[in-house]
Write a structure and sequence with these properties.
- With 262 residues, the chain is α/β, with parallel strands linked by helices.
- It is 55% helix and 10% strand.
- Strand 3, helix 9 and strand 4 form a beta-alpha-beta unit.
- The longest helix is centred in the first third of the chain and has 28 residues.
- The chain is extended.
- The protein starts with 6 loop residues before the first helix and ends with a helix.
- It binds adenosine-5'-diphosphate and magnesium ion.
Length: 262
């Protein structure tokens, strides 16, 4: 008979926290249900693997800074005529475009669900082990400028390069006159064909000369972004925020009428 007194210590030393906390309880189950030794070992391994997976997903969700609740499950495709649900689902499920370092650019006026879709795609991909970071473009430009002032721009850009998907929300809010947006160009150039960017934009490409310091830089940035990319255009008719607001207004009016009539 082996002495198993040191078993917990050995499991701990191997760094297997779930097996550490469950091995005794499962040993009893194994005995009562006549599991074979490999069956017992397998169920322990499964528990360790699945808790590791879940905690990795939780960690990656937290670090991604995705806006909470903006998932595919909460997105209403029915009211969005200009969005192809199959396309969005494919981008959320197939990691191929990320592996190929392609980009997604989502255009449309305010309130049509650009940010929601960008976040929802990233949310699904995180469950497949693809890390992402959601950031407003103006915040990112500020951060990169501070890094440049400290002569640490390459380090800052390199740090972001470790994240396969960078979501630049509202690129049009970054204005060349407010900030030295050439850092944004440097970031785009650095990620070209190496890692993905998802961009949401209120303005069409023709107005991106307001974002970058000069036209040439705007053209060069657009060229790199669109070379391998999916472009999604959401029309104004789809404004979910507006539709919700008008539905609320309509039901308020209906209620007011009822009250008046009663
Ligand atoms: P945009 O980034 O285009 O300005 P948002 O993604 O921020 O728009 O959407 C505005 C609000 O409306 C958000 O709260 C978002 O979750 C919600 N929304 C937009 N479109 C939809 C939709 N099709 N289904 C559910 N919620 C939506
Ligand atoms: Mg938005």
């Amino acid at each position: 008979m082996h002495n198993i007194a040191t078993l917990p210590l050995l499991i701990k030393q191997l760094g297997l926290p779930s097996i550490y906390s469950r091995w005794e309880e499962l040993a009893e189950t194994a005995q009562t249900q006549n599991w074979t030794y490999p069956q017992y070992l397998k169920s322990l391994c499964e528990i360790e693997v699945s808790t590791r997976y879940q905690s990795r997903v939780q960690r990656h969700l937290k670090e991604s800074k995705l806006p909470p609740g903006k998932t595919l499950a909460t997105f209403d495709f029915k009211s969005m005529k200009s969005i192809n649900p199959a396309q969005i689902k494919a981008l959320s499920e197939d990691v191929g475009w990320v592996k190929r370092a392609e980009n997604i650019i989502i255009f449309g006026p305010s309130g049509v669900g650009k940010t929601h879709i960008a976040a929802a795609i990233a949310d699904r991909l995180i469950t497949q082990g693809i890390r992402s970071l959601f950031i407003s473009t103006t915040t990112l430009v500020q951060q990169l400028q501070l890094a440049r002032q400290a002569y640490k721009l390459p380090e800052a850009i390199n740090k972001l390069a470790r994240i396969p998907i960078l979501i630049l929300d509202d690129i049009g809010y970054a204005k060349k006159d407010e900030a030295e947006t050439s850092v944004l160009f440097e970031l785009i150039a650095e990620r070209y064909e190496t890692s993905s960017i998802i961009i949401t934009a209120n303005q069409p490409f023709s107005e991106w000369n307001n974002i970058f310091p000069d036209n040439m830089m705007a053209v060069a940035a657009i060229d790199r972004l669109v070379h391998h990319s999916t472009i999604i255009n959401i029309e104004q008719v789809d404004s979910y925020r507006k539709n919700q607001a008008s539905k609320t207004a309509a039901s308020l009016a209906a209620n007011a009428n009822k009250i008046r009539e009663s």
